Amino acid sequence: MPPGMPPQGGPVSPGAVGEYASWGSRVIGVLVRSFIFLPAWIVVLILAAISDVLGILAWVVLIVFGVAATIRMFIQRGHLGYDVGDRAAGQFLISETTGAPLGSGMTVFVRQLAHIVDSLICYIGWLFPLWDAKRQTIGDKIMTTVVVKGRPQPHDVKTLLVNAFMFWTPVIKT
User: Of 43, 84, 87, 89, which has fewest CB within 10 angstroms of its CB?
Assistant: First the structure.
């Protein structure tokens, strides 16, 4: 088990997963996940200013690769418990009941869908970690997930970022 990784196995008693990640560190994780696409957006805007055809082609390429990279990060997060944003913020996404990563199936994607509820109530659900004892959003409560502090190992931020764009290779747990 890598250092900093929460315990895995059967049911987890309260507090056994370690310290819950703060709202600020969760925001950092989201920002890193979002801003990794910034250079691509800049290139698309430049190409669109130069030529309509290049702009349209660049938009299509950005959308295809953006969707693929996002799916890849979902898989990383489900399989490893973290992605490039979580690694940069020093946190893990785990199941509250097992203490293990969610798995690389649909669970992480469904969790993202559960976050729609956080937005539906005037985005207040995103602020729940500020006062909630387990620092969970409403989407986390629905999916029984928690984000805990810890330095994911052995992948570094650069490796995870590069791997987010390597859709053709499997995510391997080390």
Answer: 43
- Are 149 and 20 in contact by the 8 Å Cβ rule? The answer is yes
Give the CB-side neighbour count of residue 12, counting CA atoms within 13 A. Answer: 20
Question: What are the CB-based long-range contacts (under 8 Å, 24+) for 5-10?
Answer: 5/81, 5/92, 5/150, 5/152, 5/153, 6/92, 6/94, 6/99, 6/148, 6/150, 7/99, 8/98, 8/99, 8/100, 9/98, 9/99, 9/100, 10/98
Q: For the chain, what is the radius of gyration of the CA atoms? A: 17
What whole-number distance in Å separates Cα of residue 55 and Cα of residue 63?
Answer: 12
Taking the model in full, what pTM does it have?
Answer: 0.77
